[in-house]
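User: Structure please.
Assistant: Input sequence and predicted structure:
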Amino acid sequence: MADRVLPGPVDGTACIREAVCIHTKKIFDSCRDKDCIEDLRVYPTVGSQVYIDAAFSVRPKSAELLYVEVSVEPITFNKGYYTVDVTYFYKINGETFPGANPITGLAIFDKRVMLYGSGAGVKTFTSDPCAYGCEADGLPTAVVESVDPIALHLKIVDPSDCCICPCSEGREIPADIIARFGESLVTSDTVRRLYVTLGQFSIIRLERDTQLLIPAYDYCVPEKDCQCSTQDDPCTVFSQIRFPIEEFFPPDSSDLSDTTTTTTTSTTNSAS
């Protein structure tokens, strides 16, 4: 019997057994963004506003991406293209000076991109109740992949300062987002305001359910046995864990330079 092909890189001797039709999501278009979001309004909690009103300055500590709201709309005069409206909800953490008092608040960022999602007019229905209505409108599915942003700058602005346009005033904030802060948020225009500058990396894509014909080598049967260590001695399990040397001795600049030089030399030799 021929050797079974396992998941991973396949050499040229591997034999394709059959062509298989699968139902999956196909990516029709995608883009990546590196946004520097300047002077984004932060709605602080009630407790944080007290510290902000008495502070000389503030500094950022961290920013967390809480949720991303995504919607798709077709472009009327450009068939097959869609606008993807994305709303990012951030939790901003910082501290005031003097006193190093912790402050936290909500920041909201909106953006719109245009992607190709094909012009299929098919409405898809399924017997799966969990997927009911997902494809009934014939629109592609928008997917946003993002990491937590980098908090670059945080500042306080007095109400009398009119240099910064309050672009997101008066908007409705979802109740489940407010609940993440444990107390009410201050959205008034009569208090000292907080503004943050963030660095955000994102990938946005449009997908559709489709049928594809792909080569198949074999059924994917697990080769590794499950290991049940619930009855093992904890110290025995711990002894099998590798010592994390890199955590105690992180590489310095010379090590990184040696690695880069070695990689460059190997690449040059291969090209020769």
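The mean pLDDT is 83.
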